Amino acid sequence: MTRLNAYLARSGVASRREADRLIASGVVHVNGRAAPPEGVLIDPDHDRVTVDGKPVKPVTRHRYILLNKPLGVITTARDESGRTSVLDVVGDEGRAGHRLFPVGRLDADSTGLLLLTDDGDLAYRLTHPRYHIPKEYVAMVGGSVRTADLTKLRQGVTLDDGVTKPAQAEVLRVLPGPMTELRIVLGEGRHRQVRRMLLAVGYHVQSLRRAGFGPLKLGRLKVGGWRVLVEAEVSALRHATRLQP
């Protein structure tokens, strides 16, 4: 027997957290009946599970896509308002018949590295605070950044949802204007955290790009481009989240 949310995650429907939301919304059925909001134990060999009326079958081989998300694209598997989503960017070629979903979120007004997969167990661990997966950002802010403000970022700043954990923060370059390009590395993932942290120390973010996620690096992948992860990268992600090979 296995929990329904875990089965959905392993079958590539969604991460465990998103699977819980799907179950609560009533679109997940087990043997023709809506699953209870709190979830249920199922027997994968005998129970029939559907989502939106479509049968769920275990994935035999997962797919992992690294996308350089363009500006204005939303990080969701589907959007009822018809806005362009990250799955629209990779298209049928990127999905290759898999039920991909984004791992974590990247704001519409941010660009950069986003992982798409149908590996729910890995996605769950990559976004769980317990595993402290670092996320690297390059931010452009107005003005010259003072050393004292970098120190505040490194020590943690107070936001409306509490004090942040210490971040890595360094100046990459100063441009005319003046404007400053910063490298910020976080070990946690709050809503719009980089923007809020920089605003808390007096700087408005002009642009924000995610350059790294755990062992993954964006590299020279063009905006809107995507590629399939190589086996070594998948192994590195599993090692970072303490998953068995």
Descriptive notes:
It is elongated, with a radius of gyration of 20 Å. Helix content is about 25%, strand content about 30%. The chain is an alpha+beta fold and about 240 residues long. Strands 7, 8, 9, 10, 13, 14, 15, 16 and 17 form a nine-stranded mixed sheet that branches. A four-stranded antiparallel sheet has the order 3-2-5-6. It starts with a strand and ends in a 5-residue tail after the last helix.
* Oligomeric state of the chains in view: single chain
Structural class by helix and strand composition: alpha+beta
Largest sheet: 9 strands, mixed
Q: What integer value in Å does the Rg equal?
A: 20 Å
List strands and helices in order, with pairings.
Elements: E1 2-3, H1 4-10, H2 16-25, E2 28-30, E3 33-34, E4 41-42, E5 49-51, E6 54-55, E7 64-69, H3 86-95, E8 101-102, E9 111-117, H4 120-127, E10 135-142, H5 147-155, E11 158-159, E12 162-163, E13 168-175, E14 179-186, H6 193-200, E15 205-213, E16 216-217, E17 226-228, H7 231-240
